[in-house]
């Protein structure tokens, strides 16, 4: 996702509605739905930062965890032939399929400079 804003370790997606002539988005990676909008780049950035700050205050006021952490697992759908090739490669390497996928994802993140 390229159209994002970052503030206080939160990521906000950004989209544009030509019909409404407005930028809009939501905070990504949290269980709650927190959206924001603005008519200019300056406004959308300000609205995103205000949304993050408001979300933090609401969580604090309600004794709610600020950000729901990821549970560390997800399903990946792929063609059976690719699944078979991955499993065979992992076996040859002496690692589990899970370890192979983790390594592949981390390698890709490091290539893009997003490993941290």
Structure description:
The chain has 116 residues and is an alpha+beta fold. It has two domains: 4-61, no CATH class; 80-112. The chain is built from three helices and four strands, in the order ββββααα. The protein has helices at 41-61, 80-93, 97-112, and strands at residues 4-7, 10-17, 22-28, 35-38. A four-stranded antiparallel beta sheet has the order 1-2-3-4, covered by helices on one side. A hairpin with a 4-residue loop joins β2 and β3 (22-28). The longest helix is centred in the middle third of the chain and has 21 residues, at 41-61. The radius of gyration is 19 Å and the shape is elongated. It starts with a strand and ends with a helix. The model has no long low-confidence stretch (mean pLDDT 89).
What's the helix and strand layout?
Layout: E1 4-7, E2 10-17, E3 22-28, E4 35-38, H1 41-61, H2 80-93, H3 97-112
Q: For the largest beta sheet, what order do the strands appear in spatially?
A: 1-2-3-4
Helix coverage percent of residues?
40-55%
Tell me about the largest β-sheet: 4 strands, antiparallel
Beta-strand residue fraction: 15-25%
What structural class do you assign from the helix and strand content?
Answer: alpha+beta
Task: Count up the helices.
Answer: 3
Number of domains: 2
How many extended strands? 4
């Amino acid at each position: 996702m390229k159209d994002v804003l970052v503030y206080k370790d939160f990521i906000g997606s950004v989209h544009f509605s030509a019909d409404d002539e407005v930028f809009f988005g939501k905070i990504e990676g949290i269980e709650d739905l927190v959206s924001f909008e603005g008519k200019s780049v300056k406004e959308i950035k300000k609205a995103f930062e205000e949304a993050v700050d408001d979300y933090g205050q609401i969580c604090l006021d309600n004794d709610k965890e600020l950000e729901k952490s990821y549970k560390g697992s997800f399903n990946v759908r792929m063609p059976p032939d690719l699944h078979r090739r991955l499993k065979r490669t992992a076996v040859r390497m002496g690692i589990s399929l899970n370890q192979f996928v983790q390594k592949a994802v981390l390698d890709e993140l490091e290539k893009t400079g997003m490993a941290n």
